[in-house]
Amino acid sequence: MPDTGPATITIGGDLAVGRLGFGAMRITGPGVWGDPPDRQAALALLRRVAERGVTLIDTADSYGPGISETLIAEALHPYPAGLVIATKGGLVRPSAERWDADCRPAHLRQALEDSLRRLKLERIDLNQLHTVDPRVRLEDSVGTLVELQRQGKIRHIGVSNVTASQLAQARKLATIVSVQNRYNLEDRKSDDVVDACARGGLAFLPWYPLAAGGLVQSKRLEAIARRHGATRSQIALAWLLRRSPAMTPIPGTSSIAHFEENLAAQDIPLTDQEFAALGSA
Fold this sequence. Notes:
This protein is an alpha/beta fold and 281 residues long. It has a single domain, classed as NADP-dependent oxidoreductase domain (TIM Barrel, Alpha-Beta Barrel). The chain has ten helices and eleven strands. It has helices at 39-51, 67-76, 105-119, 138-150, 164-173, 191-200, 222-228, 232-243, 256-263, 272-280, and strands spanning 8-11, 15-18, 22-23, 56-58, 84-89, 91-92, 100-101, 124-129, 154-160, 176-180, 203-204.
């Protein structure tokens, strides 16, 4: 019976991580704004993530803003060997309702320094440009990350929320090792980017992999979930893992129980027929 694919993926040639990571957006307050309702519960969740052997935690300076990174360091520093903390810069939060692009070189430099301080690191293993700012040349934004990489403050560079053509452009400017775009069973606008990552040996980190729980209502998943004794969300994650060897889902949650449920998806072996049925519906 087909399995879910390789258990690990190597990012940038030297960061070996499990195929299923953890997205640390939801450990903040409602609307990804402010402190979590229960700080101790958020810290306990992060510690459980590490205890269960998850080796990739994805965050961003805009989550909170600053709260997610601060909680990660409070819960886990000094970090366990092999744990990769990936963060992002390039979006700012003037208010809870706004996510504004700011990829100016000066802002990206300051954002990185702030992330290093909050995460208590001297170097970010994977620093991702959070978006493409239409006001700033991509050459300038990516070039700033390359400059910071040369200074030893960034190990590897990734990009987020990019088209295939923007990815190709970024790869001419730097060694890009990952892409983080919105992608799930129902939203496959980034199919071409996923395939480009597979061809180029890049990791693809789908954000919104469960459509914030929206896929739980999908009738497409019901029969297959019942067959495996699984939840619909688990089947949706299992489909992502089968979709491409580049795929590294980072489902997020504020609940330990939900985290455990998501993690179990990596052990669900979809058959070729099930995978095809989900992908063609």
